[in-house]
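As described in the Methods, two query proteins were run sequentially through the folding procedure within a single session, without resetting any intermediate state between them. The first query and its resulting structure tokens are shown here.
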Amino acid sequence: MNTDIASRRYNGFSMLLHWILALALVGMFTMGLYMADLPFSPQRLKLYNWHKWAGITVLTLSTLRLLWRLTHRPPPLPQAVTLAMPGWQMQVYQATHVLMYALFFAVPLIGWSYSSAAGFPIVVFGVLPLPDFVAPDKALAELIKPWHAIAAFTLAGLVVLHVAAALKHHWIDKDGLLARILPGKR
């Protein structure tokens, strides 16, 4: 591996937050797809509560991740990578990261808004009641509901793009870029 890339790895805490959030997002999206089509039942109610708890956890982790990133700059892309990357790829790279960060917040906040407007408060882990994000209003809930799905599917698409780009760098470009975020010694 290029020593330029090896010396420009993310720190351990950044890696930990990245992978925990990645797994949480995959789990949340999968659970959301599964539970949305379930008939009304105790199982569906339980999954919706878990989904809300996980959403608040993702929101909390996203806040922590953003604060960490603002106070701990990520390592710059290695010069060899930036020189080899066409300008449009650099723009897509930057836009994808900004949009993903925005959606890390937007998706759970829209979900919280929908839950509040629908009259279903969020009680984290069944013990910590959160304030309603908006006042209960069934008409507003119907307006908000599709936006949670649109934002979640947009985030999922960006995650797929992010993973595809990482795998392209790993298998096609063979530039070692993926190793910057993988835990363990490289």
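Immediately afterward, the second query was submitted; its sequence and tokens are:
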Amino acid sequence: MKNTVFIFFLISINNYAQNSTEIKETFPVFPVCELLPEKFHQDCFNETVDEHIQNNFVYPKQAWDNDLEAMVKVKFDIDINGTIKNITPNSSVIGVSFFDRESLNLAKKLFNDSAKKVIESLPDAIPAKKGNIAIKKTFLVSIKYQIPRKLGFDDVDSPPIFELCSDEENKKLCFIKFIEDHISKNFKYPKRAIKKGEEGNVFIQFDMTSDGLYTNFTTIGENRILEDEAYRIMIKLPSFEPAKYRDKYVTTTYGTTISFKLNQ
């Protein structure tokens, strides 16, 4: 089960500052970075590892199903042949207590195995060198396994579902149409705005929580009267089933624009 939520840090454990009297030391180079000037090799190395983790990151299904999260620190070497060796993951399970050590060790193993597999699949590199002699370099990465609690509307697998959309195949399209119909049915041009000749667009954004609540309304418009009307319309939305991401309820944010235009 893939998941794009993670934190990545890269540290060269045995790297050190050099002065003019020390023998020159170069950084390991992945093939994709080889043609770049040497001064960019370290940044390219870091970016390549980062991108590799993103593309190969898999959330352990058993951990996902049980709402387990962890931070895994993985130490590994790039040896004198440029091969990834001595991969040592060490996970810390976050936000949960275990009644027995066996359960804790099982949870840690799920994350350790997943993180190790990601690092194992890194490509071979041109090894680091010191004075033109290949040397081993040791690195440390930290990968965070975190279940998302809030995602954008475009990122959820299933949007919030209104009753009228429950049987529709394209639920996102049904959701958007439902919102448009709701605005149309409940739209009333404020009398004060008509008297003042006020018109314009109001962007309104709000959260639809994993508990089935509407929160965090924000309006952006040219006039407070019109913003208040947009708010009045949207707080009349009916109850819903929360959005889902990989079978878990999540909070999602949705925004739309309401146009107020006077007939000329």
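Residues 152-260 form a domain with the TolA/TonB C-terminal domain fold (CATH 3.30.2420). We note this only descriptively and draw no conclusion about the first query from it.
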